[in-house]
Amino acid sequence: ISKLFDPEKTDVVQLTKSYRSTKELTNFTKQILRQGEKIEAFDRRGPKPAFYKRDSLEKEYNALEDILVENDEQKLTTAIITKTLAEAQEVAKVLKERKIKATLIGSANQRLVPGTLVMPSYLAKGLEFDAVIAWNVSRDNYHQLDETQLLYTITSRAMYKLDLIYTGEKSPLFDDLDEKTYVNK
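^ that's the sequence the OP posted. Answer follows.
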């Protein structure tokens, strides 16, 4: 852009301060991106992101249910963000079977409603929520380098609280995270 304008009359300013999320979330999510170190966190505090490793799908859903109860008690608007629409549909179906109220957002023109939402990652871009639950962040589901931006988009939708659930091994895209920036539950 600077080449389009007279350099003597132009200043380039990089905006690097993030005001959306807590310091803990910003410090966590910026590690996912290459050159994310340029992002500066605003000094608003909150809980560290939490990984929930479980050894079965049933236990993943139990963890999900526990997190939703905790978020409801704190009156947090929660989005469960999956990689695909098929995953979002499955999560919504299981929650319904468990008598947990959640709204599936399956298209871009669908209205966001209060309460727990379940949506695929491609519908989450540009949105923000008090709490985000990243569903199935396993090695099997996220293993390609080109999925880095997708994981960043999912995790950076949270303004206050981020929980990440998986079975088996977590995605290798999280391998370089500073262990002081998250907790394991």
